[in-house]
Sequence to fold (220 residues):
Amino acid sequence: MIRLEDVSKTYRTDRIETRALDHVQLTIDKGEFVAIMGPSGCGKTTLLNLMGLLDVPTSGRVVLDEKPVATSRDRELSRLRNEKVGFIFQSFHLVPDLTVLDNVEIPLLYRRMSGKDRRRMALAALDRVGLSSRVHHFPSQLSGGQQQRVAVARALVGRPQVLLADEPTGNLDSQMGEEILGLLASANADGTTVVMVTHDPRMAERAHRVVRLFDGRQIQ
Fold:
């Protein structure tokens, strides 16, 4: 499904060179639920961004569905991200002046479909996360857990093959965190590949396996 082949990522400024990832070899199989763990600054988010085609490696290559990403043009990368990858972030990243329903519809705006079909799919995604009664609310009218459920619905609405979650429970209490993890597990049970960055060992235990990073290197 996703392969990182000898991937390194280096960020350079005029004075400093920072190696965020160092020769990572990693394969994520279709249908897996993988947790990525490690201390702050070890390269977890960088790894997720490379998997999600939001960034490119300095060396090595990323392969998605047996196709090297480096061979794709920008427009093709955008299409692949929109059709194959769903993103969930720790800080929700909802648009404050859009309703819950409109927020969930956003990924579908880049697809050729009618407004009626977009609305139908967004409503179905919100029903899946238990927010059918909140479709006309704004993010500021929701709790943190509800906002994250909206973010999960937005990530799932386009039926992605891969769901990438960057600390999805980091800003939530334990009960809300369990609810969000349950939604990820449900998506995985339905066939979606899930890769989750987390600091919480209890959350990582729910994954099929754990990948550990330290100073940009994969140690497990």
